[in-house]
Amino acid sequence: MNKANILDCVKVYKAEVNKLGYKYFHQPSLLEFVFFFPSWYTYLHSGSSPIQDGIPWITFSATKFLEHTLTKEMVVYEFGSGGSTLFLAKRVKQVYSVEHDKTWFLTVSDAIKNKGYSNWSGRVLEPAYEGEYLEKSPSDPDAYVSGSPDFKGYSFKNYVESIDDFSDGYFDLVLIDGRARPSCFKHAVSKVRVGGYIMWDNTERLYYLEDIQNLQRGLLRVDLPGPGPYVAFFTQTSIWARYK
To answer: What is the pLDDT of residues 48-60, one digit of tens each?
Structure first.
């Protein structure tokens, strides 16, 4: 292990910790800094991926929350699939996933099959190009569009509305880590039971949260910024608990 490399990483990590105070309005304790550094360093240099490691690509603190919260009685819905699918299938009763990318879906399906999990049901719903969607804002929950330039003009309405096949209060957890995330949040709220959770990754992208104020009634939000696997910079995962 290269000592100089470790020292350089410590400097990068410390700089990211210091940013938390003004970027996320959260100043972690020294204990938090020390606790997550080994995992951050290991995954950053592992050359592996969430699928290979069977972990979600969210902040470590969010993963820790899931490790302490998930039970074998829970039913989960995912917008977007990957390492989180493997992680969840290992810990809960049933996982449902929707994916927009057919090639990636096959990769996830193979990984699930190799693990021998039988409690997963996934499907592909690809976006459709519709010119009227060119000017819609990705922050608008009623827009059903992605902020990615690669999908400008594409509608993810069918993808988002896939969760509407289930009755209200059906899920213990909905994980949002795919496309058109504000729209996914809008449709997820009624599908989570009282006492259940919505987890939304990359909420450091402020436009995600611009237009969802009216959708948060009956929900308590907690932001979990900090380090996560595979990247040097810190991100934020947020959790909403439904209390009524």
So the answer is: 999 999 999 999 9
Query: What string of H, E and C letters represents the secondary structure of 47-60?
Result: CCCHHHHCCCCCCH
**Residue 215, in any domain of the structure:** yes
pTM for the whole thing? 0.92
pLDDT of residue 18: 78
The answer, yes or no, to whether residue 30 has pLDDT greater than 80, is: no
Give the range of the structural domain holding residue 216, as residue numbers without chain letter.
Answer: 48-242
6 part of a folded domain: no
Residue 7 CA, distance from chain mean position: 30
The candidate with the shortest Cα–Cα distance to 13, out of 203, 224, 205, 226, is 226
Is 28 a domain residue? no
**What confidence tens digit (pLDDT) does each residue in 163-199 have?**
999 999 999 999 999 999 999 999 999 999 999 999 9
DSSP for the chain, please give it: --HHHHHHHHHHHHHHHHHHHHHSS----HHHHHHHHHHHHHHHTT---HHHHT--SS-HHHHHHHHHH--TT-EEEEES-SHHHHHHHTTSSEEEEEES-HHHHHHHHHHHHHHT--SEEEEE---EE-GGGTT--TT-TTT---S-GGGTTEE-HHHHHGGGGS-TT-EEEEEE-SSSHHHHHHHHGGGEEEEEEEEEE-TTSGGGGTT-GGG-TTEEEEEEEE--SS-SS-EEEEEEEE--
- Look over the chain and give the mean of its residue pLDDT values, rounded to a whole number: 93
CATH number of the structural domain spanning residue 64: 3.40.50.150
Give a yes or no: residue 71 inside a domain: yes
Structural domain count, the chain: 1
